[in-house]
Amino acid sequence: MTRFILPLLGIFIFYSESIFATFSPVQAYGDTRFLVPRFLFLFILLISIYYKPRTAYIFGFVFGFMYDLFFTGIIGIYMFLFPLLIYIALAVLKLIHQHLIVIGLLGIVLIAGLEWVVYQFNLLIGVAGVDFSTFLTQRLYSTLLFNSLFLLLLAYPLKVWMINLRQTHYQE
Amino acid sequence: MPPFFMNKRLIVLLVSIILLVALIGFSLRERENISWPEQFVKDIVGFGQNIASKPAGYVQGLVENVQDLTNTYSENQTLKARLEELVQLETEVIDLTRDNEELRGIIGIEENLRDFNVVHATVIARNPDQWQETIIIDKGQVNGIETNMAVQTASGMIGRVKDTGQFTSTIELLSARNPNNRVSALIQSDESNVFGLVEGFDREREELMVRKIPFDQEVQEGSRVITSGLGGIFPKDLLIGEVTEVAQDEYGLTQIAYVKPASSLYDLEHVMVIERTAVGQSEIEQDSQDEEAE
Q: What positions belong to coiled-coil segments (chain A) (predicted)?
Protein backbone atom coordinates (compact mmCIF):
# COMPACT_ATOMS: atom_id res chain seq x y z
CA MET A 1 0.00 0.00 0.00
CA THR A 2 2.85 2.38 0.85
CA ARG A 3 4.17 1.87 -2.69
CA PHE A 4 1.35 3.97 -4.11
CA ILE A 5 1.56 6.84 -1.68
CA LEU A 6 4.51 8.56 -3.38
CA PRO A 7 2.95 8.65 -6.89
CA LEU A 8 -0.37 9.74 -5.37
CA LEU A 9 1.29 12.63 -3.55
CA GLY A 10 3.08 13.50 -6.80
CA ILE A 11 -0.22 13.63 -8.68
CA PHE A 12 -1.71 15.77 -5.93
CA ILE A 13 1.16 18.27 -6.14
CA PHE A 14 0.96 18.23 -9.95
CA TYR A 15 -2.67 19.33 -9.83
CA SER A 16 -2.16 21.77 -6.98
CA GLU A 17 0.38 23.70 -9.09
CA SER A 18 -2.21 24.84 -11.59
CA ILE A 19 -4.54 25.82 -8.74
CA PHE A 20 -1.77 27.88 -7.12
CA ALA A 21 -1.13 29.45 -10.51
CA THR A 22 -4.59 31.02 -10.44
CA PHE A 23 -3.39 33.38 -7.65
CA SER A 24 -0.80 34.78 -10.01
CA PRO A 25 0.00 37.43 -11.15
CA VAL A 26 -0.07 39.68 -8.11
CA GLN A 27 0.53 43.43 -7.90
CA ALA A 28 3.33 44.10 -5.42
CA TYR A 29 5.83 46.94 -5.04
CA GLY A 30 4.49 48.76 -8.05
CA ASP A 31 4.87 45.99 -10.59
CA THR A 32 3.12 42.88 -11.85
CA ARG A 33 4.75 39.84 -10.27
CA PHE A 34 4.27 36.34 -11.56
CA LEU A 35 4.36 33.50 -9.07
CA VAL A 36 5.32 30.30 -10.81
CA PRO A 37 4.87 27.25 -8.57
CA ARG A 38 7.68 24.70 -9.01
CA PHE A 39 6.55 22.49 -6.14
CA LEU A 40 6.62 19.35 -8.24
CA PHE A 41 10.28 19.87 -9.07
CA LEU A 42 11.17 20.46 -5.41
CA PHE A 43 9.24 17.32 -4.47
CA ILE A 44 11.13 15.27 -7.07
CA LEU A 45 14.41 16.77 -5.87
CA LEU A 46 13.67 15.67 -2.30
CA ILE A 47 12.78 12.18 -3.58
CA SER A 48 16.11 11.92 -5.38
CA ILE A 49 18.04 12.73 -2.20
CA TYR A 50 16.01 11.15 0.59
CA TYR A 51 14.29 8.30 -1.22
CA LYS A 52 15.75 6.86 -4.40
CA PRO A 53 17.39 8.62 -7.39
CA ARG A 54 15.86 6.04 -9.76
CA THR A 55 12.32 6.90 -8.61
CA ALA A 56 13.13 10.58 -9.00
CA TYR A 57 14.25 10.13 -12.63
CA ILE A 58 11.08 8.21 -13.48
CA PHE A 59 8.90 10.80 -11.74
CA GLY A 60 10.71 13.64 -13.48
CA PHE A 61 10.24 12.04 -16.85
CA VAL A 62 6.57 11.05 -16.42
CA PHE A 63 5.39 14.22 -14.70
CA GLY A 64 7.43 16.36 -17.08
CA PHE A 65 5.73 14.63 -19.98
CA MET A 66 2.28 15.22 -18.43
CA TYR A 67 3.18 18.85 -17.77
CA ASP A 68 4.28 19.37 -21.37
CA LEU A 69 1.24 17.72 -22.87
CA PHE A 70 -1.44 19.14 -20.67
CA PHE A 71 -0.23 22.66 -19.98
CA THR A 72 2.29 23.91 -22.51
CA GLY A 73 1.49 21.74 -25.54
CA ILE A 74 5.19 21.63 -26.49
CA ILE A 75 6.39 18.13 -25.77
CA GLY A 76 9.93 17.66 -24.53
CA ILE A 77 10.85 20.73 -22.47
CA TYR A 78 9.99 19.71 -18.94
CA MET A 79 10.26 16.02 -19.78
CA PHE A 80 13.93 16.65 -20.54
CA LEU A 81 14.66 19.39 -17.98
CA PHE A 82 13.36 17.68 -14.84
CA PRO A 83 15.63 14.59 -15.09
CA LEU A 84 18.56 16.73 -16.24
CA LEU A 85 18.30 19.03 -13.23
CA ILE A 86 17.99 16.04 -10.88
CA TYR A 87 21.17 14.66 -12.45
CA ILE A 88 22.96 17.99 -11.89
CA ALA A 89 21.68 18.17 -8.30
CA LEU A 90 22.97 14.67 -7.48
CA ALA A 91 26.33 15.41 -9.11
CA VAL A 92 26.70 18.60 -7.06
CA LEU A 93 25.64 16.91 -3.83
CA LYS A 94 28.46 14.36 -4.20
CA LEU A 95 30.87 17.25 -3.72
CA ILE A 96 29.21 19.19 -0.91
CA HIS A 97 27.74 18.47 2.47
CA GLN A 98 24.16 17.16 2.45
CA HIS A 99 22.36 19.35 4.90
CA LEU A 100 18.71 20.30 4.46
CA ILE A 101 19.53 24.02 4.24
CA VAL A 102 22.16 23.38 1.57
CA ILE A 103 19.72 21.24 -0.36
CA GLY A 104 17.06 23.95 -0.08
CA LEU A 105 19.45 26.56 -1.45
CA LEU A 106 20.47 24.21 -4.23
CA GLY A 107 16.79 23.70 -5.09
CA ILE A 108 16.30 27.47 -5.35
CA VAL A 109 19.36 27.85 -7.58
CA LEU A 110 18.13 25.03 -9.81
CA ILE A 111 14.68 26.62 -10.08
CA ALA A 112 16.38 29.84 -11.17
CA GLY A 113 18.21 27.78 -13.80
CA LEU A 114 14.98 26.09 -14.87
CA GLU A 115 13.17 29.41 -15.20
CA TRP A 116 16.03 30.83 -17.21
CA VAL A 117 16.15 27.90 -19.66
CA VAL A 118 12.37 28.00 -20.11
CA TYR A 119 12.54 31.76 -20.65
CA GLN A 120 15.28 31.40 -23.25
CA PHE A 121 13.34 28.69 -25.04
CA ASN A 122 10.14 30.74 -25.10
CA LEU A 123 12.12 33.71 -26.37
CA LEU A 124 13.45 31.48 -29.14
CA ILE A 125 10.06 30.29 -30.32
CA GLY A 126 8.53 33.75 -29.92
CA VAL A 127 6.13 33.05 -27.06
CA ALA A 128 7.90 35.31 -24.58
CA GLY A 129 8.37 38.93 -25.51
CA VAL A 130 10.01 40.46 -22.46
CA ASP A 131 13.65 41.49 -22.06
CA PHE A 132 15.95 40.02 -19.46
CA SER A 133 15.57 42.71 -16.80
CA THR A 134 11.78 42.50 -16.97
CA PHE A 135 12.09 38.73 -16.67
CA LEU A 136 14.19 39.22 -13.53
CA THR A 137 11.89 41.73 -11.83
CA GLN A 138 8.54 40.36 -12.91
CA ARG A 139 9.17 36.65 -12.68
CA LEU A 140 12.37 35.36 -11.21
CA TYR A 141 12.55 37.07 -7.81
CA SER A 142 8.89 36.54 -6.95
CA THR A 143 9.01 32.94 -8.17
CA LEU A 144 12.07 32.15 -6.07
CA LEU A 145 10.46 33.72 -3.03
CA PHE A 146 7.24 31.81 -3.61
CA ASN A 147 9.04 28.49 -3.89
CA SER A 148 11.28 29.11 -0.90
CA LEU A 149 8.08 29.53 1.08
CA PHE A 150 7.09 26.02 0.01
CA LEU A 151 10.51 24.71 1.05
CA LEU A 152 10.34 26.51 4.38
CA LEU A 153 6.98 24.95 5.20
CA LEU A 154 7.31 21.45 3.79
CA ALA A 155 10.95 20.50 3.22
CA TYR A 156 11.58 19.21 6.74
CA PRO A 157 8.34 17.18 7.10
CA LEU A 158 8.86 15.69 3.63
CA LYS A 159 12.46 14.78 4.49
CA VAL A 160 11.50 12.94 7.68
CA TRP A 161 8.60 11.23 5.96
CA MET A 162 10.66 10.08 2.97
CA ILE A 163 13.46 8.69 5.12
CA ASN A 164 10.88 6.69 7.10
CA LEU A 165 9.30 5.47 3.90
CA ARG A 166 12.65 4.32 2.54
CA GLN A 167 13.40 2.42 5.73
CA THR A 168 10.07 0.60 5.71
CA HIS A 169 10.62 -0.34 2.05
CA TYR A 170 14.09 -1.68 2.78
CA GLN A 171 12.77 -3.78 5.64
CA GLU A 172 10.22 -5.35 3.36
CA MET B 1 37.97 5.91 -30.47
CA PRO B 2 36.30 3.27 -28.34
CA PRO B 3 36.37 5.15 -24.97
CA PHE B 4 34.41 8.03 -26.45
CA PHE B 5 31.56 5.89 -27.74
CA MET B 6 31.62 3.57 -24.77
CA ASN B 7 30.62 6.44 -22.51
CA LYS B 8 27.07 5.46 -21.70
CA ARG B 9 26.05 8.80 -20.29
CA LEU B 10 27.17 10.68 -23.36
CA ILE B 11 25.13 8.43 -25.62
CA VAL B 12 22.05 8.83 -23.43
CA LEU B 13 22.50 12.60 -23.53
CA LEU B 14 22.96 12.70 -27.31
CA VAL B 15 19.99 10.45 -27.99
CA SER B 16 17.78 12.45 -25.68
CA ILE B 17 18.78 15.75 -27.29
CA ILE B 18 17.92 14.37 -30.73
CA LEU B 19 14.60 13.10 -29.35
CA LEU B 20 13.97 16.47 -27.70
CA VAL B 21 14.49 18.43 -30.90
CA ALA B 22 12.29 16.01 -32.84
CA LEU B 23 9.48 16.23 -30.27
CA ILE B 24 9.61 20.03 -30.08
CA GLY B 25 9.54 20.24 -33.85
CA PHE B 26 6.61 17.87 -33.90
CA SER B 27 4.58 19.92 -31.43
CA LEU B 28 5.43 23.35 -32.84
CA ARG B 29 4.42 22.73 -36.45
CA GLU B 30 1.24 24.22 -37.81
CA ARG B 31 -1.68 21.92 -37.36
CA GLU B 32 -5.42 21.91 -37.10
CA ASN B 33 -5.67 19.96 -33.85
CA ILE B 34 -3.46 17.80 -31.66
CA SER B 35 -2.95 14.12 -32.56
CA TRP B 36 -5.00 11.40 -30.88
CA PRO B 37 -2.31 10.10 -28.46
CA GLU B 38 -1.93 13.66 -27.19
CA GLN B 39 -5.69 13.99 -26.87
CA PHE B 40 -5.81 10.71 -24.98
CA VAL B 41 -3.20 11.71 -22.38
CA LYS B 42 -4.73 15.16 -22.14
CA ASP B 43 -8.16 13.72 -21.41
CA ILE B 44 -6.83 11.45 -18.67
CA VAL B 45 -4.92 14.30 -17.01
CA GLY B 46 -7.91 16.56 -17.53
CA PHE B 47 -10.19 14.10 -15.77
CA GLY B 48 -8.11 14.35 -12.60
CA GLN B 49 -7.74 18.09 -12.96
CA ASN B 50 -11.50 18.38 -13.19
CA ILE B 51 -11.90 16.63 -9.85
CA ALA B 52 -9.06 18.59 -8.22
CA SER B 53 -10.33 21.98 -9.35
CA LYS B 54 -13.87 21.55 -8.01
CA PRO B 55 -13.14 22.00 -4.27
CA ALA B 56 -10.63 24.77 -5.05
CA GLY B 57 -13.25 26.58 -7.10
CA TYR B 58 -15.75 26.16 -4.28
CA VAL B 59 -13.43 27.72 -1.69
CA GLN B 60 -12.56 30.55 -4.07
CA GLY B 61 -16.26 31.21 -4.66
CA LEU B 62 -16.88 31.33 -0.93
CA VAL B 63 -14.14 33.90 -0.37
CA GLU B 64 -15.46 36.02 -3.25
CA ASN B 65 -18.98 35.87 -1.83
CA VAL B 66 -17.79 37.23 1.51
CA GLN B 67 -15.87 40.00 -0.26
CA ASP B 68 -18.99 40.87 -2.28
CA LEU B 69 -21.05 41.21 0.88
CA THR B 70 -18.90 44.05 2.18
CA ASN B 71 -19.78 46.47 -0.61
CA THR B 72 -23.35 45.35 -1.21
CA TYR B 73 -24.94 48.62 -0.12
CA SER B 74 -23.12 50.99 -2.46
CA GLU B 75 -23.51 48.54 -5.33
CA ASN B 76 -27.21 48.35 -4.68
CA GLN B 77 -27.58 52.14 -4.89
CA THR B 78 -25.91 52.37 -8.30
CA LEU B 79 -27.80 49.35 -9.60
CA LYS B 80 -31.13 50.91 -8.66
CA ALA B 81 -30.22 54.01 -10.62
CA ARG B 82 -29.26 51.89 -13.64
CA LEU B 83 -32.42 49.83 -13.44
CA GLU B 84 -34.66 52.72 -14.45
CA GLU B 85 -32.62 53.36 -17.57
CA LEU B 86 -32.74 49.66 -18.33
CA VAL B 87 -36.52 49.48 -18.69
CA GLN B 88 -36.44 52.20 -21.30
CA LEU B 89 -33.57 50.51 -23.12
CA GLU B 90 -35.33 47.17 -23.08
CA THR B 91 -38.49 48.44 -24.75
CA GLU B 92 -36.33 50.10 -27.36
CA VAL B 93 -34.40 46.88 -28.02
CA ILE B 94 -37.59 44.83 -28.35
CA ASP B 95 -38.98 47.35 -30.77
CA LEU B 96 -35.82 47.38 -32.86
CA THR B 97 -35.51 43.59 -32.89
CA ARG B 98 -39.06 43.24 -34.16
CA ASP B 99 -38.47 45.91 -36.75
CA ASN B 100 -35.28 44.19 -37.86
CA GLU B 101 -37.00 40.80 -38.15
CA GLU B 102 -39.80 42.23 -40.25
CA LEU B 103 -37.41 43.97 -42.60
CA ARG B 104 -35.33 40.83 -42.92
CA GLY B 105 -38.51 38.89 -43.66
CA ILE B 106 -39.41 41.30 -46.43
CA ILE B 107 -36.10 41.03 -48.25
CA GLY B 108 -35.74 37.33 -47.44
CA ILE B 109 -32.37 37.17 -45.71
CA GLU B 110 -32.23 34.25 -43.33
CA GLU B 111 -28.59 34.10 -42.40
CA ASN B 112 -27.13 36.55 -40.00
CA LEU B 113 -23.50 37.00 -39.03
CA ARG B 114 -24.67 37.61 -35.48
CA ASP B 115 -26.20 34.17 -34.90
CA PHE B 116 -24.35 31.77 -32.67
CA ASN B 117 -24.74 28.83 -30.29
CA VAL B 118 -23.26 28.87 -26.83
CA VAL B 119 -21.54 26.12 -24.82
CA HIS B 120 -20.95 26.99 -21.17
CA ALA B 121 -17.73 25.76 -19.62
CA THR B 122 -15.71 26.05 -16.43
CA VAL B 123 -12.01 26.86 -16.32
CA ILE B 124 -10.21 23.95 -14.66
CA ALA B 125 -6.59 24.99 -14.98
CA ARG B 126 -4.22 27.70 -16.01
CA ASN B 127 -0.77 26.97 -17.36
CA PRO B 128 1.43 27.12 -14.21
CA ASP B 129 4.53 28.41 -15.99
CA GLN B 130 2.44 31.29 -17.36
CA TRP B 131 4.42 31.86 -20.54
CA GLN B 132 1.77 30.65 -22.93
CA GLU B 133 -1.38 32.57 -22.22
CA THR B 134 -3.64 29.54 -22.17
CA ILE B 135 -6.40 28.19 -19.96
CA ILE B 136 -8.01 24.76 -19.95
CA ILE B 137 -11.77 24.24 -19.83
CA ASP B 138 -13.85 21.21 -18.94
CA LYS B 139 -15.70 20.83 -22.28
CA GLY B 140 -14.39 19.11 -25.40
CA GLN B 141 -15.32 17.55 -28.71
CA VAL B 142 -18.19 15.56 -27.20
CA ASN B 143 -19.80 18.89 -26.29
CA GLY B 144 -19.40 20.13 -29.85
CA ILE B 145 -16.34 22.30 -29.37
CA GLU B 146 -14.03 22.70 -32.34
CA THR B 147 -10.75 24.52 -32.84
CA ASN B 148 -10.83 28.26 -33.58
CA MET B 149 -14.19 28.92 -31.96
CA ALA B 150 -14.49 32.22 -30.11
CA VAL B 151 -14.53 32.22 -26.31
CA GLN B 152 -16.04 34.93 -24.16
CA THR B 153 -17.09 35.64 -20.60
CA ALA B 154 -20.26 37.48 -19.63
CA SER B 155 -18.42 40.78 -20.07
CA GLY B 156 -16.54 40.25 -23.32
CA MET B 157 -14.43 38.16 -25.67
CA ILE B 158 -11.28 36.60 -24.21
CA GLY B 159 -9.80 34.30 -26.85
CA ARG B 160 -10.22 31.33 -29.12
CA VAL B 161 -10.07 27.54 -28.87
CA LYS B 162 -6.50 26.42 -29.60
CA ASP B 163 -6.92 22.66 -29.46
CA THR B 164 -9.54 20.21 -28.30
CA GLY B 165 -9.56 16.81 -26.66
CA GLN B 166 -12.61 14.64 -26.13
CA PHE B 167 -13.45 16.14 -22.73
CA THR B 168 -11.16 19.16 -22.36
CA SER B 169 -10.03 22.03 -24.56
CA THR B 170 -7.27 24.60 -24.43
CA ILE B 171 -8.13 28.26 -24.91
CA GLU B 172 -5.58 30.75 -26.20
CA LEU B 173 -6.24 34.18 -24.73
CA LEU B 174 -6.21 37.37 -26.78
CA SER B 175 -3.10 38.41 -24.88
CA ALA B 176 -1.04 35.51 -26.27
CA ARG B 177 1.89 36.42 -28.46
CA ASN B 178 0.94 34.50 -31.56
CA PRO B 179 1.19 36.11 -34.99
CA ASN B 180 -1.78 34.00 -36.12
CA ASN B 181 -3.88 35.37 -33.31
CA ARG B 182 -5.81 37.95 -35.32
CA VAL B 183 -9.39 39.04 -34.94
CA SER B 184 -11.22 41.17 -37.47
CA ALA B 185 -12.69 43.99 -35.41
CA LEU B 186 -15.02 46.90 -35.82
CA ILE B 187 -14.80 50.17 -33.90
CA GLN B 188 -18.17 51.81 -33.32
CA SER B 189 -17.70 55.55 -33.80
CA ASP B 190 -20.44 58.13 -33.83
CA GLU B 191 -20.74 58.53 -37.60
CA SER B 192 -19.56 55.28 -39.14
CA ASN B 193 -17.92 52.01 -38.27
CA VAL B 194 -14.16 51.69 -38.59
CA PHE B 195 -12.57 48.34 -39.37
CA GLY B 196 -9.29 47.06 -38.01
CA LEU B 197 -7.47 43.94 -36.87
CA VAL B 198 -6.85 43.02 -33.25
CA GLU B 199 -3.18 42.11 -33.42
CA GLY B 200 -0.93 41.84 -30.42
CA PHE B 201 -1.01 42.79 -26.80
CA ASP B 202 0.91 45.58 -25.12
CA ARG B 203 2.17 43.94 -21.96
CA GLU B 204 3.14 47.15 -20.20
CA ARG B 205 -0.20 48.85 -20.74
CA GLU B 206 -2.07 45.51 -20.51
CA GLU B 207 -4.11 46.53 -23.52
CA LEU B 208 -4.86 45.03 -26.90
CA MET B 209 -3.77 46.73 -30.09
CA VAL B 210 -6.09 47.21 -33.05
CA ARG B 211 -3.93 47.74 -36.12
CA LYS B 212 -4.49 48.54 -39.79
CA ILE B 213 -6.99 51.33 -39.18
CA PRO B 214 -6.99 53.64 -42.26
CA PHE B 215 -5.25 56.92 -41.41
CA ASP B 216 -8.12 59.10 -42.63
CA GLN B 217 -10.66 57.53 -40.30
CA GLU B 218 -11.28 59.30 -37.05
CA VAL B 219 -11.49 57.08 -34.00
CA GLN B 220 -12.77 58.54 -30.75
CA GLU B 221 -11.41 57.43 -27.43
CA GLY B 222 -13.99 55.53 -25.47
CA SER B 223 -15.61 53.89 -28.50
CA ARG B 224 -16.53 50.25 -28.25
CA VAL B 225 -14.67 47.58 -30.20
CA ILE B 226 -16.59 44.48 -31.32
CA THR B 227 -15.84 41.54 -33.60
CA SER B 228 -16.83 42.24 -37.20
CA GLY B 229 -17.67 38.66 -38.18
CA LEU B 230 -15.75 39.18 -41.43
CA GLY B 231 -12.96 36.76 -40.60
CA GLY B 232 -15.37 33.89 -41.23
CA ILE B 233 -14.74 32.20 -37.88
CA PHE B 234 -16.19 34.42 -35.15
CA PRO B 235 -19.75 35.77 -35.15
CA LYS B 236 -20.44 39.48 -35.25
CA ASP B 237 -21.08 41.66 -32.19
CA LEU B 238 -18.92 40.04 -29.53
CA LEU B 239 -17.61 42.83 -27.33
CA ILE B 240 -13.81 43.05 -27.23
CA GLY B 241 -13.17 46.29 -25.36
CA GLU B 242 -12.98 50.04 -25.29
CA VAL B 243 -10.53 52.36 -27.09
CA THR B 244 -8.25 54.23 -24.68
CA GLU B 245 -5.76 55.83 -27.06
CA VAL B 246 -5.19 56.23 -30.79
CA ALA B 247 -1.69 56.55 -32.21
CA GLN B 248 0.14 56.47 -35.55
CA ASP B 249 1.78 53.18 -36.42
CA GLU B 250 5.55 52.91 -36.91
CA TYR B 251 5.37 53.79 -40.64
CA GLY B 252 2.73 56.51 -40.33
CA LEU B 253 0.47 54.86 -42.91
CA THR B 254 -2.21 53.46 -40.60
CA GLN B 255 -3.37 54.04 -37.07
CA ILE B 256 -3.20 51.88 -33.96
CA ALA B 257 -5.91 51.96 -31.34
CA TYR B 258 -5.11 50.73 -27.84
CA VAL B 259 -8.05 48.80 -26.50
CA LYS B 260 -8.71 47.92 -22.89
CA PRO B 261 -10.23 44.41 -22.87
CA ALA B 262 -13.82 44.35 -21.66
CA SER B 263 -13.22 41.16 -19.71
CA SER B 264 -10.36 40.50 -17.32
CA LEU B 265 -7.88 38.11 -18.92
CA TYR B 266 -6.54 36.82 -15.61
CA ASP B 267 -9.31 36.00 -13.21
CA LEU B 268 -11.42 33.63 -15.27
CA GLU B 269 -13.83 31.08 -13.93
CA HIS B 270 -16.83 30.58 -16.21
CA VAL B 271 -16.53 31.03 -19.95
CA MET B 272 -18.77 30.58 -22.98
CA VAL B 273 -17.60 28.96 -26.19
CA ILE B 274 -19.29 30.52 -29.20
CA GLU B 275 -20.15 28.49 -32.26
CA ARG B 276 -20.93 30.63 -35.27
CA THR B 277 -23.91 29.37 -37.22
CA ALA B 278 -23.50 31.52 -40.36
CA VAL B 279 -21.26 29.74 -42.84
CA GLY B 280 -17.75 31.09 -43.25
CA GLN B 281 -15.47 31.19 -46.26
CA SER B 282 -13.95 27.78 -45.61
CA GLU B 283 -17.34 26.07 -45.56
CA ILE B 284 -18.44 27.81 -48.74
CA GLU B 285 -15.23 26.72 -50.46
CA GLN B 286 -15.75 23.19 -49.16
CA ASP B 287 -19.28 23.13 -50.54
CA SER B 288 -18.24 24.36 -53.95
CA GLN B 289 -15.48 21.76 -54.07
CA ASP B 290 -18.00 19.06 -53.22
CA GLU B 291 -20.25 20.22 -56.01
CA GLU B 292 -17.40 20.21 -58.49
CA ALA B 293 -16.54 16.68 -57.45
CA GLU B 294 -20.05 15.59 -58.15
A: none
